[in-house]
Design brief:
Elements lengths: L12 H4 L5 H21 L4 E3 L2 E4 L3 H8 L6 E6 L15 H17 L1 E11 L1 E4 L3 E5 H5 L6 E9 L14 E8 L23 E2 L2 E2 L11 E3 L23 H11 L5 E4 L6 H8 L3 E5 L3 H25 L1
Parallel strand pairs: 2-13, 3-4, 3-12, 7-11, 12-13
Antiparallel strand pairs: 1-2, 4-8, 5-6, 7-8, 9-10
Helix pairs in contact: 3-4, 6-7
Bound molecules: S-adenosylmethionine.
S-adenosylmethionine binds next to helix 3.
């Protein structure tokens, strides 16, 4: 039985934890170098602090500029607009939507290191008179140069309730890599400790890895909920925020400390906070200024909470 994770804090506690030793100092030192390098080729960002760099720009323009620069991405984690009429998007034809996705994914591919990965979170869209809920992976999976490792099902409990069809309770992550032989995959860092018989042995040896089991390709994490009585603590005013706990797992497994993590549809900055909490540098771009502003407010609040939590520890 897969463990159900509860999003009960503004950020998962492991993300708040220190930064207590000289790793924090190394992180700050290296981040200065990283920020300078990014600024040299990409220009002044909207915001920068401690290895967290945010641009307020259309990701296509941004990526096209990056293509000429010397910045290489270790990991991209993102959730683009789904073409379903949210407040930050205009519905376009399916053909145009697929073309647009191919355009920015191709640019990410060009700017990704050989051992890098690309995690794409997508849901469903409607095609009138044809389908109510087409899984977006059906439209995109083979249209890009990345190698598709697998599809992860992200299952959650809360959501829309339906009467004439089954209530939707999943989204997908397409896990792509640039090179199927050399990609980063830190399984031990994301093992699930919830093992039923941890002491079971075979020929005197433990049957299960003491760090836990492989978390499988079906993940259960609560969605970021809204509403006056059931709103998640990490909820911001952004209408499509993904939960920090899911992105925390993706970042741990598909990147290493001091790597560069990118999100071209930065939204409320979830990828950035999960990256920073794991000593990774963050580069994000977001087209809407109001979301950039709420990201900055959220990131500063997270830094404050982190400092407070570490001050009480030492
Ligand atoms: C699904 S949301 C991402 C939410 C994000 N994962 C989070 O946790 O907050 C998509 C975001 O992409 C932004 N966006 C839409 N088109 C864009 C573009 N061309 N370039 C950059 N950002 C864009 C939207 O404003 C929106 O914030």
């Amino acid at each position: 039985m897969t463990k159900i994770y509860k999003g009960t804090h503004m950020v998962p506690l492991n993300i708040l934890q220190n930064h207590c030793n000289n790793k924090q100092e190394i992180f700050i030192l290296k981040s200065k170098y990283m920020i300078e390098k990014i600024k040299e080729s990409m220009g002044e960002p909207y915001y920068e602090k401690e290895g967290f760099v945010l641009y307020n720009e259309n990701c296509i323009d941004f990526l096209a500029r990056m293509d000429k620069a010397s910045i290489e991405l270790d990991l991209t984690v993102t959730s683009p607009p789904y073409n379903i009429g949210k407040e930050y998007e205009e519905i376009i034809s399916i053909d145009a939507y697929v073309k647009w996705c191919i355009q920015w994914i191709d640019l990410i591919y060009k700017n990704t290191k050989d051992n890098g990965s690309f995690w794409l979170n997508v849901g469903y869209l409607e095609i009138s008179d044809i389908a109510k809920a087409i899984p977006i992976p059906y439209l995109l999976w083979d249209k890009v140069d990345f190698f598709l490792m697998q599809e992860i099902v992200w299952n959650y409990a809360a959501g829309v309730s339906a009467k004439k069809f089954f209530s939707p309770r999943n989204e997908k992550f397409l896990f792509y890599v640039k090179n199927q032989n050399t990609y980063t995959f830190n399984l031990d860092d994301v093992r699930d400790p919830n093992v039923k018989y941890p002491n079971q042995k075979k020929n005197g040896k433990l049957k299960c890895n003491p760090l836990g089991k492989n978390p499988t390709d079906v993940w259960q994490f609560p969605k970021v909920t809204s509403g006056s009585s059931r709103s998640s603590k990490e909820r911001t005013a952004h209408p499509a925020q993904f939960p920090l706990s899911v992105i925390d797992r993706v970042i741990k497994v598909s990147s290493n400390e001091f790597d560069l993590v990118f999100d071209p549809f930065s939204g409320s900055g979830t990828t950035g906070i999960a990256a920073h909490g794991n000593y990774r540098f963050y580069l994000g771009t977001e087209i809407k200024q109001e979301y950039c502003d709420l990201t900055i407010e959220r990131f500063e609040r997270y830094l404050f909470e982190k400092k407070k939590s570490n001050d009480t520890l030492f």
